[in-house]
Amino acid sequence: MHRPLELQGKILFRSGISKGGLKLNRALIMAFTASFLVSACGVPTSTQVKALSTQPTSALCSAHVSASGADLLAIEAELGARGALQCNTAYGGSSYLGARTAATVGKSLYARGGASAAPVPRDDKNCSDFASAGEAQRFFIANGGPHRDPHGLDGDGDGNACEWGKALKSSVAKYKPKPVRYTAPRRSSPTCHTGPRGGRYYYSASGRKVYGC
């Protein structure tokens, strides 16, 4: 179930104070959470997306940790437009874009074309009009995405404009923690010696002569 970002912000503030890790003042957090509340239909409006652009990257990174649904899409779009594919969290860890969204890249989740197609705006935009995939995604979200796509930036209906899906996958490939593999230390073979009668032996760890190597 989608949790309002306002509630998430209060939790971040309280836990940050108790652990001494959140270096954002109360006024900043409350201003951020109050300025970005997802509409009843779960789609950020252009005003809400614009409000995100006024927030510092540190505040967006803190909100990104527990955001979900439309909140998560909008926050990742803003961070991507700034080129912040990875950022440190308030508790010393790190988060990266695509950790919870890259799995849907290429999957048709939203209707495109036909009766569901929105009228083409006069100032129609193409992917080539944006300096980066992040900027294209931010514009897409601010103009009705992911449910509506009046500019035709998300042809396959996966909720990612232009090359944003590819950017999310690249982020995961680069920043997802790699599993740690344990390699058992190799046991060195004992050095064999040949006795005066041709017998083979080696010395154990305790220094005892052991025949039969």
Written overview of the protein:
Keywords: Plasmid. It comes from Gemmobacter fulvus. Residues 123-163 form the Excalibur calcium-binding domain. By secondary structure, the protein is mainly α. The protein folds into two domains: 5-175, no CATH class; 184-213, no CATH class. The chain is 35% helix and 7% strand. The chain is built from seven helices and five strands, in the order αααααββααβββ. The chain has helices at 5-19, 26-35, 46-52, 57-64, 69-81, 133-142, 164-175, and strands at 86-88, 94-96, 193-194, 200-203, 209-211. The strands form two sheets. A three-stranded antiparallel β-sheet has the order 3-4-5, with no helix packed on it. The N and C termini lie far apart (67 Å).
Please describe the topology of this protein.
Layout: H1 5-19, H2 26-35, H3 46-52, H4 57-64, H5 69-81, E1 86-88, E2 94-96, H6 133-142, H7 164-175, E3 193-194, E4 200-203, E5 209-211
Helix pairs in contact: 1-2, 4-5, 5-6
Task: Give a short synopsis of this structure.
This protein is mainly α and 213 residues long. It contains seven helices and five strands. Strand 1 and strand 2 form a beta hairpin.
The N- to C-terminal Cα distance equals 67 Å
Strand fraction: 5-15%
Which stretches are poorly predicted, pLDDT < 50 over at least 5 residues?
1-28, 34-41
Q: Please work out how many helical segments DSSP would assign.
A: 7
Run of helices and strands: HHHHHEEHHEEE
The tally of beta strands, per DSSP, is 5
Main pleated sheet = 3 strands, antiparallel
Helix share bin: 25-40%
* Structural classification: mainly alpha
Instruction: Work out the count of structural domains.
Output: 2
Instruction: Label the overall shape.
Output: elongated
Rg, Cα atoms, Å: 28 Å
Overall residue-averaged pLDDT value: 78
Strand order of the largest sheet: 3-4-5
Organism: Gemmobacter fulvus
Protein name: Excalibur calcium-binding domain-containing protein
Keywords: Plasmid
InterPro entries: Excalibur_Ca-bd_domain
